[in-house]
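Now for one protein, fold included:
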Amino acid sequence: MKIGNKIIGEGHPSFIIAELSANHNGNLDVAIETIKAAKRCGADAIKLQTYTPDTLTIDCDNKHFKIEAGTLWDGKTLYELYGEAYTPWEWHDQLFETAKNEGLICFSSPFDKTAVDFLEQYDMPAYKIASFEIQDIPLIEYAASKGKPIIMSTGIAEEADIQLAVDTCRRVGNNDIILLKCTSSYPASLELANLNTIPDLKTRFGVEVGFSDHTYGSLAPTVATTLGAKVIEKHFILDKAIGGPDADFSLDEPEFTEMVKAVRDTEKLLGKVCYDISEKVKNNRKFARSLFVVQDVKAGDIISEKNIRSIRPGYGLHPKYYYDILGKTFSENIERGTPLSNELIKN
């Protein structure tokens, strides 16, 4: 499958997404500069979130709407948090245009049908379903019906939730599905990452897989790459001094740059299944073992364990012939340190 000009799948580099989220802190200029910085870091894409407080929840401060879950946002109401975090819809024109000028793929997470309708004008290369929306089957069905690749984070999902979401996409004829292993804890501890789930998601659900990360640092995305993650999503902030709801577990420009480098270096290390050796390595085979004459011998002497050995370097016969030639005789006088060859053996 393709997202923009990037192929997602085996044999292709991981698709690295810089998640803008709330890291503009309500400032359009900061949002624009963050997109430019994401390009400098080596990201493939910038992802927005398209919602308003009213499309996510209602303005209510009773106990059901107060955040008290051991998060960075405890004490706020949902409406207050989303009012701080949302990206104004009137910014989208400039944000998409900036990304295009920078050569970055830009797409978004819609949080209701009106957001999908709004985003359609930008010819979305993909839609992202956020962790807490994976149970919103009407939203998934509507987004998937647009025929674009669907990326879904699995942070709060049990296996049945994931299966239902995948089946919903397929029911409307959309098989371009990417599941992201995710831990919906902010920040997420390493002990809760369970990255071994990544290859299992691929085989269990028959989809492409990736990792949406809320841990500190870049270790988890690097390890996820070794486990087959073909999409890496990480919150990105221009400068942590900006503050905001997601600043604490986001990477700034130097950190995100280092993460991209670590992922790309990991991909180089993983390479491909290959039993060929390079020309440089082939040249070094001369330092491998081979059969040498290790005593001065005369023509007619019997070849024995005392006068030939498998040693370095590799100019003599292959050691696999060792037992075949024991007991035969030398065809001529030979000095110690001579590579053994067929011409020196009397048949």
